[in-house]
Amino acid sequence: MVVQTTFAVQPIAGALGAEVTGLDLATLDDETFTAVHDAFLEHHVLVIRDQSLSVEDQLAFGRRFGELDTHPFVDGNPEHPELLDVVTEPDDRINFGGGWHTDVTFMEEPDLGSILYAVELPPIGGDTLFANQHAAYDALSPTMQHMIDDLVAIHSAAPQYAPGGLSTQSNAMATKNAGLALAKVEHPLVRTHPETGRKGLYVNGAFTIGIKGMRSNEAKMLLDFLIAHGTHERFTCRVNWQPGSLTMWDNRSVQHFALHDYAGHTRHMRRITVKGDRPR
Description:
Elements: E1 8-11, E2 18-21, H1 30-43, E3 45-48, H2 55-63, E4 84-88, E5 113-120, E6 128-132, H3 133-138, H4 142-148, E7 152-156, H5 158-161, E8 184-188, E9 190-192, E10 199-201, E11 208-211, H6 216-230, E12 236-239, E13 246-250, E14 254-258, E15 267-274
């Protein structure tokens, strides 16, 4: 294995995100991987440029973070079910991952993070936005923090994957198991990161449908405020995709939004996700 001792990390915004150069992810030694993992925890989003990764290379890199997951509502690659081909066709009105969200919070143990590799990009557009939920929590008043610290949010896949759900309307991304999307799970509204110990908001507009113990109108007012607050521009960064780019994000501390501003063109990304733990 090739030993890599140095690489460059350049922040891309004040709130989160960093661009990494000087790495070959297919040949990482253990010491360099530890440094990459540390940068991941510090910056929440890493954009690693100039990669030439096979499917096997991407899967092997992901497994260094933990066991890989499969998506409960979208079929994976026939040969590698942990790998999801995220495709937007030129005539698609809906893109997979559009709108602010945190991945699969409808699961009992949502994924630790996602690792996305560019296969085919539109000539312009197709950026991804990210929002730091630690920074969003820290910016709340102490009174608001005290009020929400012990609340429990209710999450469901129904808005996206139940019959007629938004994600079922993509032409390129076929969905499945619509009946299972009606299930609900409960997670703390404020999550403590299991590795850093930092608190962060843990609600999102795609999957959070209520707050335990609150009437629906009460919950809606609070959730609307927190979701808008959590995606305010001062907590965000924007990733511009280039050929050979791989972007990974910490699903425990960020939301993201895949922009669909490239109508008439194809966008094809390879996504893998790392299994996570139960939010606390």
